[in-house]
Amino acid sequence: MLKANTGQFGLNAEHDPPMVVALMPSTQRHRTVAIGVVVVMLAVSALVAPFVNRQIGKIDSFLPVVQTVTSAADLLTATLLLAQYSVQPHRALLVVAGGYIFAGSFAFLQTLSFPGSYAPNGLIGDVYNTPAWFFVLWYTTFPLSILVYALLKDRGGGSRFSTTASMATTLISVFAAIALLSWVAIAETRRLPSFFTTGLMLQTSLSNQFNIGLSLLGCFVLLVLFVRRRTVLDLWLMVTLFAALPNFLVAAYEGSARFSVGWYTARGFALIASCMLLSVLVTEMIVLYSRLASALVMQRRERSNRFVSIDAATAAIAHEIGSPLGAITLNANTARQMLAAQPRRLDEVNAILRNIEEDSLRVNATITSVRELFKGAVDRPATISLEGIARQVLRLLQHELQFNGMLVATDFRVEMSLVRADPIQLQQVILNLFKNAIEAMASTSLNGRRLNIATRLDERSSFVLLSVQDTGRGVPPQHHDRIFDAFFTTKPSGMGLGLAICRTIIERYGGRLVLAKSSPQGSTFEIALPLEDDRRGSA
Ligand code: ADP
């Protein structure tokens, strides 16, 4: 079938790729970057380890700057996640967004209460315990939200309520919880256990126990997420949880943790981690947006090129006028018999001739309407590289190939060999072959889906060849001759025009499109186009 790329992005179909970045499967590139970030953090930790306990004094501007930025990054991340939820309502996204609102809010409240940040004794709460409690609230609500996310994420599905109602309920509940917990941390500090010995600013043993507890909670959630990891979001949440660990470790093992080298480093890590998820989301959204935009452009082009081929047009006309023509033949035959019979039944012959006339007018009207359909489809041949077009189509389908777990291997050997054809039509041909291959592999096991694309130059015939090999179900021998016929399809929603149109396009430019090989293990389609004249000498 000649299909539009964007047609694959419906929300409900099981095999359709997710529309939001957060739910996309992580790729090798994402994993490499994430591992790189973790390695850098480990290297920095190793570098500062000997000095972790060393006090470098209080830098007043450090905490307000770092934590305000962390808080802004967290709240922006929450906004992006909510925006993604509105596109693809998946309950788990709401939970992470809630977690980020908790983190961003408590980070900011802690900064407000921290002595020497926005005011010498902090703007809210008591000098010592309020910031410490905000720290605890920050690092319990966030990992707990991630834990709920990790447990919910594979269950799929949205909530029973509308998207707006679910978002509003989440926001109201999260902010109500923040207000309540903050009130306790600010106004009821006296009733809460104390983390610092007043005056000396030394941590109590309870503080150490809490820090160990928070590290264990962080490690546990990290482990759950690791076991259930799949998406880009899972990956960066793991990095974020990992980056938070030094905060507790430093605090747990140091007698007076604040303002030591370790303390500053740990806060820096938390900032980097917050900004990282945010930048990954923004970058990937821009990439996705550009792909969707190209797909849309391509879909528009496809619409105007859909019926470019004369053969396909003929096939469509033949389909439409088949029955009136059949009736005309039958009627003419009957009329002849009546004229030959004695006595001649001229009245009946007259009626039959009227029928023939009406059928002919119907045929004429059909041809006129089909011609209207083909108007505006013009060829714009250009000298192009077959490989270049194949690469463009691969880029367009990258997301879909990745989502369907396809392993793509390219073996391009004719970089400099050019052919003459309309680039848009050639894009459609290659897109159709790739899409057919993807569909043929839908029933293959996930680790056996392989798409091999190769180009080579046939020096003898001066043809450039592009082969598309898949590991799908193959074309059964009885269909080999029929798959290029118009309206032949084995798919429930297929039109059976794709290969017919593709073949006509390729033949129009002096080439051929064939099923080169097929077996139950897969098939190989091959396009051959004549090498552009100017290049023949140099090929
Ligand atoms: P459609 O995709 O609408 O069926 P096409 O003309 O593109 O129309 O394909 C015609 C038929 O050829 C398909 O229905 C399918 O049976 C067969 N076919 C095409 N490509 C492949 C492939 N890569 N592997 C197996 N069968 C294929």
TrEMBL record:
<feature type="transmembrane region" description="Helical">
    <location>
        <begin position="64"/>
        <end position="85"/>
    </location>
</feature>
<keyword id="KW-0597">Phosphoprotein</keyword>
<protein>
    <recommendedName>
        <fullName>histidine kinase</fullName>
        <ecNumber>2.7.13.3</ecNumber>
    </recommendedName>
</protein>
<keyword id="KW-0808">Transferase</keyword>
<dbReference type="InterPro" id="IPR004358">
    <property type="entry name" value="Sig_transdc_His_kin-like_C"/>
</dbReference>
<feature type="domain" description="Histidine kinase">
    <location>
        <begin position="316"/>
        <end position="533"/>
    </location>
</feature>
<feature type="transmembrane region" description="Helical">
    <location>
        <begin position="132"/>
        <end position="152"/>
    </location>
</feature>
<feature type="transmembrane region" description="Helical">
    <location>
        <begin position="233"/>
        <end position="253"/>
    </location>
</feature>
<feature type="transmembrane region" description="Helical">
    <location>
        <begin position="33"/>
        <end position="52"/>
    </location>
</feature>
<dbReference type="InterPro" id="IPR036890">
    <property type="entry name" value="HATPase_C_sf"/>
</dbReference>
<keyword id="KW-1133">Transmembrane helix</keyword>
<dbReference type="InterPro" id="IPR003661">
    <property type="entry name" value="HisK_dim/P_dom"/>
</dbReference>
<feature type="transmembrane region" description="Helical">
    <location>
        <begin position="164"/>
        <end position="186"/>
    </location>
</feature>
<dbReference type="InterPro" id="IPR005467">
    <property type="entry name" value="His_kinase_dom"/>
</dbReference>
<dbReference type="Pfam" id="PF17158">
    <property type="entry name" value="MASE4"/>
</dbReference>
<keyword id="KW-0547">Nucleotide-binding</keyword>
<keyword id="KW-0418">Kinase</keyword>
<dbReference type="InterPro" id="IPR003594">
    <property type="entry name" value="HATPase_dom"/>
</dbReference>
<feature type="transmembrane region" description="Helical">
    <location>
        <begin position="206"/>
        <end position="226"/>
    </location>
</feature>
<dbReference type="Pfam" id="PF02518">
    <property type="entry name" value="HATPase_c"/>
</dbReference>
<feature type="transmembrane region" description="Helical">
    <location>
        <begin position="268"/>
        <end position="290"/>
    </location>
</feature>
<feature type="transmembrane region" description="Helical">
    <location>
        <begin position="92"/>
        <end position="112"/>
    </location>
</feature>
<keyword id="KW-0472">Membrane</keyword>
<keyword id="KW-0067">ATP-binding</keyword>
<dbReference type="InterPro" id="IPR036097">
    <property type="entry name" value="HisK_dim/P_sf"/>
</dbReference>
<keyword id="KW-0812">Transmembrane</keyword>
<dbReference type="InterPro" id="IPR033424">
    <property type="entry name" value="MASE4"/>
</dbReference>
<keyword id="KW-0902">Two-component regulatory system</keyword>
